[in-house]
Specification:
The chain has a 16-stranded antiparallel β-barrel. The longest helix is centred in the first third of the chain and has 17 residues. With 351 residues, it is mostly beta strands. Strand 3 and strand 4 form a beta hairpin. It has three helices and 17 strands. The radius of gyration is 21 Å and the shape is globular.
Amino acid sequence: MKQSILALAALAALSHTCARAQDSVQLYGLVDAGVEAVNHAGADGGSLVRAVSGGKNTSRWGVRGSEDLGGGLKAVFNLEGGILMDSGASDGALFKRQAWAGLEGDFGRVVIGRSFTTTYDLVIKFDPLGFAPNYSWATSGGATGPSKYGMTTSFDNLIKYKGTRGGFTYGATIGLGEQAGSTADGRKLAVGGSWFGGGLGLMAAWEHVNGSTLVTGVRDKTTAYHLGADYKSGPWRYTAGMRGYKMASGRAAAANLRGNTYWGGITRVAGKVTLTGAVYHIDTRNLPAGQDADPTMLVARAMLALSPRSDLYLSAAHAKASHGQPVGLSRDDAGTGTTQSGITAGIQHRF
């Protein structure tokens, strides 16, 4: 596996160097490593200090390219995998993040394979932290309670379309269930659009995901819609968004699970320093008595640009839940107390 990765990377670098004017192949990536201190991290409620991969953005590497077919038409592809900077391991499958090929022209872009959903592409632009693994609930809440109340960031077996006109960006994604005898079993849909102009941005997105009866024996159905607004004026940026989440259980007499996530943030750029403050809140619903956590998280982050491609960052967050329920700062760690606080310092470099 390691030899395959090295060979592919070397081929991509060579292809980039020798590419013809009308063709291009690019090796690219982002490495993000830091150190986090967090409390209420173990079964005994103890604190933890650890090296983390992706405190600000998920570490990744990839190869992308295009070929000019003439008449304004291009063949395009993208292969992208995640990296765990603390161990050097691959974050899941080799190209878990993206693996697709397609066509691009005046009509937009159509691709087939695995990729991020239309909803995800739109929502991250309306997250004041830009979807930071430490700490953001704009795409997924903390890993606590019966559900993360989030959205599906990627689809397998997808067909995806993206188009742009003026300040509008719009698209749709379908993930094929690929179950014999039922086109609905395991099927996933996402659709949405955004508009930017005069410093103002607006966004709306919707997704619907069917469970698979082959996996669970029943077909749960989840839907999530998103609304967002963003405004930039000089060095200031103001961002707000929300998600309405519902899971309809395929089990008889089981209550539908609902949760609305709200967030907002303010960012100020002062030379090479960028300061951001944000708040996230999940209004959980239809839960048994005493399990209504309704968690809230406050986040502050400072970034120092060392160059156009390298940044230092310092992030701090505090989350609190109601009714004695546990709460965690990130989508990966559930936490063991009704509050959790953490601080992450790290460096990010793009290549």
